[in-house]
Amino acid sequence: RKSMLLLGFLLAFLGLALPVTQGKIIPRCEMVKILRRNGFEGFVGKTVADWMCLVKYESDYNTKAYNNNGPSRDYGIFQINSKYWCNDGKTSGSKDACHISCSKLQDDNISDDIQCAKKIAREARGLTPW
């Protein structure tokens, strides 16, 4: 009984000590609807299925996804990079081509993420930046 109590306190402590990186997880079917509604079907010659695959493997549908690449970082559901597309105030020589703070790519409102992802895909004529 004492060991279970200790385990409970330990788990509670760890839960408080770990940073919160879980944003909204957008359900698959909802993500398909969002992509269709925002004109991703056929956009730069790619299907909604292509974009779904990208979102799944880049962020696992998590709006707060974050990945440190060393000199730059990837943010949000599309994992948009701070070297070229957003400004995180940490990446030297950032181009900030989407004119957006990287932190805005980690909130639950993904409309700005969508605009930036489409800009990236349009400029690359596809999904090669990912």
UniProtKB/TrEMBL annotation:
One GO-annotated biological process of the protein: killing of cells of another organism
GO molecular function per UniProt: lysozyme activity
Alphabetical UniProt keywords: Antimicrobial, Bacteriolytic enzyme, Disulfide bond, Glycosidase, Hydrolase, Secreted, Signal
Predominant location category: secreted
Subcellular location: Secreted
Domain Glycosyl hydrolases family 22 (GH22) as annotated: residue spans: 98-116
SMART domains: LYZ1 (SM00263)
InterPro entries in the cross-refs: Glyco_hydro_22 (IPR001916), Glyco_hydro_22_CS (IPR019799), Glyco_hydro_22_lys (IPR000974), Lysozyme-like_dom_sf (IPR023346)
Catalytically driven reaction(s): Hydrolysis of (1->4)-beta-linkages between N-acetylmuramic acid and N-acetyl-D-glucosamine residues in a peptidoglycan and between N-acetyl-D-glucosamine residues in chitodextrins
Signal peptide: 1-23
EC number: 3.2.1.17
GO cellular component: a single term: extracellular region
Family designation: Belongs to the glycosyl hydrolase 22 family.
Official protein name in the record: lysozyme
Record organism: Mionectes macconnelli (McConnell's flycatcher)
UniProt gene name: Lyz
